[in-house]
Design goal:
alpha/beta; Ubiquitin-like (UB roll); 4-stranded parallel beta sheet
Length: 584
C-alpha cells in the first residue's frame, strides 16, 4: 500500500509498523526499546514518537501499524521537543557515570544524548549547588557502579543504568524462551529484573547483554584478573582465540563487519605481554575428529539418536535444565575451548618441560557462557583448572583502549605453531551449520574410506532457524538438522519427543547464526552485520590449504605422540565429559 512520510509517497507492507516502514525506506527515527532482533516493541522508551493524520497527539512509531491513507511526520518541532524531554528524563539517571561505564562510547543512550545535545545534569542537582553533605554523599553513592548480581560467572547487571526498555525481557522470552527477566512492582517502583529478584538463573547466552542499549546488562568483567597475571613474572600466560573472533574483533576499531583480523588479534595479545598465543581452531579440529568417531560408533551400535553436538555451553545448560531426557543424546565431546585447554596443561607443558601450575590459560571468546563453562569442574581434564580466565572480545577491546593500543598500527603476527595450525573446517565453527559441515567433511571420508577432495555441504548453510537434509553415504542415509536460537531448539525437541521428526545428527547453537551472533560479540549487531561476518568466514575457509579437520598436521602429531587414536582412553580422559541433570 502507499503511505506518505514527510509529504513523500512510499510503499508499505500491510501489518508492518511505521518504524519498520521508515527503516526500510531509509528514514531514520531514533529508538531505544526497538531492536532488529526483536519483535515489535510497545513504545516504552517514547523516543520514536511521530505525528499522523489518523491519531490524536504523538504516537510511538514502533507500535503503530500502517493503514491506507496514512500520512506520517517524523520531524516536527513538537516531535523533537517531546523526544528531547523523554531523552533528558532517561539520561538523568546516567548523569556523571559515563567515564567508568563499560559501554562508554558504545552506549545507544549516550549516542542519542550527544545527538540531541542533552545537558546531563538538567534533572539532577549539580554537585556545586549541593550544600547538604548528606545529600552530596547520597548522590555520590548513586553515581557509583554497583553490580547487583554476583552469583553467576557470566552476566553482570546494574539497575542504575537500566532505562526499562525491556529488550532483555523480550529477547529472553521470545528468542531464547527462558524468561529469566520480567517486570517487577508497579507505578514509580516498576523495574526490570529477575522474578522475585532472585540471582540470575538462565543459560548465560548473553543475548540480553547484546541487545541492552546501555550498561545495565554486560558480561562479567575479568580484565583486572587478566592484567594481574600479565604483571606476574612467575606466570606463563597462554591465550587461545575462538574461530569467530578474528572476523568480529575489527568492528571494535571501526572496520567493516567480516574483516579478517587474525594477525592483528595475535599481535595485540603479544603486545599486551602474553607468552604464547594458540588457535582454538585446533581444539575445533579435535572436536570434529572425536565427534566423527563417536557418530560412527553410534551408527554401528544403533544409537542413541539423534546425536546432538555439544560445543555450545548455553545449549548444554538448556538441555540439563529443561530437557534432561536428552542428556544421553549429547555428544560427550568437549567444546573446542575445553579441548585445547587440557592439551596446553598436559601435552604442551610436558613437551616444553613447563610447570603447568605456573601456566595461566586464557580464552578470548565470542560468548558469555564460556565464562560459565570454564568453571564447570567436570570439564577439567588435566590435574589443574584447564581454563583460568575467559574474556569476551568486548572485554579485550576495552583493555586495548585502556592501554591505548591501536591494532591498526601493529604489524600482523602468526599463532605460535606448537598449537596454532588451523583448518577451514575448524573456522566454520564460527557460524550456524559450520560444525555440521566440518563434521561431515571428516565423517563421510571415514565412513567411505575415500578421499573426497573439496566436497562442500552447502545444504547445511543458511539463515533458517531449522534446516534439515538427508545425506546418502554408500548404503547409509543420514538424516541431519541444523538449528540456532533456543526458540527453534525447543520446537525441534518437542517434535522429536512427539515422534513428528527423527534425525541421526543435529547441530545446535543457542545464539542467532551461531557464534558470530554470540552474546560477547561487538555491539550493536543486526542480521546484515551477521551476514557480513558469515561471508568473511566462508571466504576464508574456501582459500585455506587445509579444509578438513583430520588433515591438521598438529592434530596428527598429538594423536601419534600423546593421545593414541580418536576415542582412546587418553582421549576420553582429556577430550570428553559427562553432563548433569539440573532439572528442578
Amino acid at each position: 500500500m502507499q503511505i506518505k512520510i514527510n509529504k513523500k509517497s512510499y510503499q508499505a507492507d500491510e501489518g508492518e509498523t511505521i518504524l519498520s516502514a521508515c527503516k526500510r525506506n531509509k528514514i531514520r527515527i531514533p529508538a531505544l526499546c526497538a531492536h532488529p532482533n526483536l519483535s515489535p516493541s510497545e513504545g516504552v522508551c517514547r523516543m520514536c514518537l511521530v505525528e499522523t493524520n489518523q491519531t490524536r497527539g504523538l504516537v510511538p512509531a514502533c507500535a503503530q501499524i500502517v493503514s491506507r491513507g496514512l500520512e506520517v511526520f517524523t520531524e516536527t518541532e513538537k516531535i523533537n521537543k517531546a523526544r528531547k524531554i523523554n531523552l533528558e528524563l532517561l539520561w538523568a539517571d546516567h548523569a556523571g557515570k559515563c567515564a567508568s561505564c563499560r559501554r562508554n562510547r558504545r552506549c545507544e543512550l549516550q549516542n542519542l544524548a550527544e545527538e540531541f545535545k542533552i545537558d546531563e545534569f538538567k534533572f539532577v542537582p549539580r554537585r556545586k549547588e549541593l550544600e547538604n553533605k548528606d545529600e552530596l554523599d547520597l548522590l555520590k553513592d548513586n553515581w557509583e557502579h554497583t553490580v547487583l548480581d554476583e552469583k553467576n560467572q557470566s552476566i553482570a547487571r546494574d539497575s542504575q543504568y537500566c532505562i526499562e526498555c525491556r529488550r532483555c525481557v523480550r529477547i529472553c522470552r521470545d528468542m531464547q524462551t527462558v524468561e529469566a527477566y520480567g517486570v517487577n512492582y508497579r507505578s514509580s517502583k516498576t523495574n526490570v529484573g529477575t522474578p522475585y529478584e532472585i540471582p540470575l538463573d538462565c543459560i548465560f547466552c548473553g543475548q540480553c547483554s547484546a541487545v541492552c542499549p546501555t550498561a545495565a546488562i554486560t558480561e562479567k568483567d575479568d580484565i583486572e584478573k587478566f592484567e594481574k597475571v600479565l604483571a606476574d613474572p612467575k606466570k606463563m600466560v597462554i591465550v587461545q582465540t575462538a574461530p569467530s573472533v578474528r572476523f568480529t574483533f575489527s568492528e571494535e576499531f571501526g572496520e567493516a563487519p567480516g574483516t579478517f583480523w587474525e594477525g592483528k588479534l595475535v599481535a595485540v595479545l603479544k603486545e599486551l605481554g602474553c607468552d604464547k598465543v594458540f588457535d582454538t581452531v585446533l581444539g575445533a579440529d579435535f572436536t570434529i575428529v572425536e565427534e566423527a568417531h563417536e557418530l560412527i560408533k553410534r551408527l554401528k551400535n544403533g544409537g542413541p539418536f539423534p546425536m546432538f553436538t555439544s560445543c555450545c555451553p548455553s545449549w548444554i545448560l538448556y538441555v540439563e535444565k529443561y530437557y534432561s531426557q536428552f542428556i544421553p543424546n549429547l555428544s560427550s565431546c568437549k567444546s573446542p575451548q575445553q579441548m585445547l585447554a587440557p592439551l596446553v596443561k598436559t601435552y604442551y607443558a610436558e613437551s616444553e618441560k613447563i610447570n603447568p601450575a605456573q601456566t595461566v590459560s586464557v580464552s578470548i571468546m565470542p560468548c558469555t557462557s564460556k565464562k560459565y563453562e570454564a568453571q564447570r569442574p567436570e570439564l577439567n581434564g588435566s590435574d589443574h583448572k584447564d581454563v583460568d580466565i575467559v574474556l569476551t572480545i568486548r572485554e579485550l577491546a576495552r583493555l586495548l583502549r585502556k592501554k591505548k593500543i591501536d591494532p591498526r598500527k601493529l604489524k600482523e603476527k602468526k599463532y605460535d605453531p606448537a598449537l596454532g595450525i588451523s583448518t577451514g573446517a575448524g573456522l566454520l565453527f564460527a557460524q550456524s551449520g559450520g560444525v555440521m559441515e566440518a563434521a561431515l567433511r571428516t565423517a563421510v571420508e571415514k565412513i567411505t574410506g575415500e578421499e573426497l577432495g573439496k566436497m562442500e555441504f552447502e545444504m547445511v548453510r543458511g539463515e533458517a532457524g531449522i534446516r534439515c537434509a538427508e545425506i546418502e553415504i554408500n548404503d547409509l542415509k543420514l538424516k541431519i538438522a541444523v538449528v540456532h536460537e533456543i526458540r527453534n531448539v525447543k520446537k525441534l525437541l518437542e517434535d522429536i519427543k512427539a515422534s513428528r521428526a527423527s534425525y541421526d545428527f543435529v547441530e545446535v547453537m543457542a545464539c542467532p547464526n551461531g557464534c558470530i551472533g554470540g552474546g560477547g560479540q561487538p555491539v550493536p549487531v543486526n542480521q546484515n552485520i551477521r551476514n557480513a561476518r558469515i561471508k568473511g568466514i566462508l571466504k576464508r575457509d574456501k582459500g585455506m590449504p587445509l579444509r578438513k579437520s583430520h588433515e591438521n598436521p598438529v592434530l596428527k602429531k598429538i594423536y601419534k605422540e600423546f593421545l593414541g587414536q580418536p576415542g582412546s582412553e587418553k582421549a576420553e580422559e582429556l577430550l570428553h565429559t559427562k553432563y548433569i541433570n539440573r532439572k528442578k
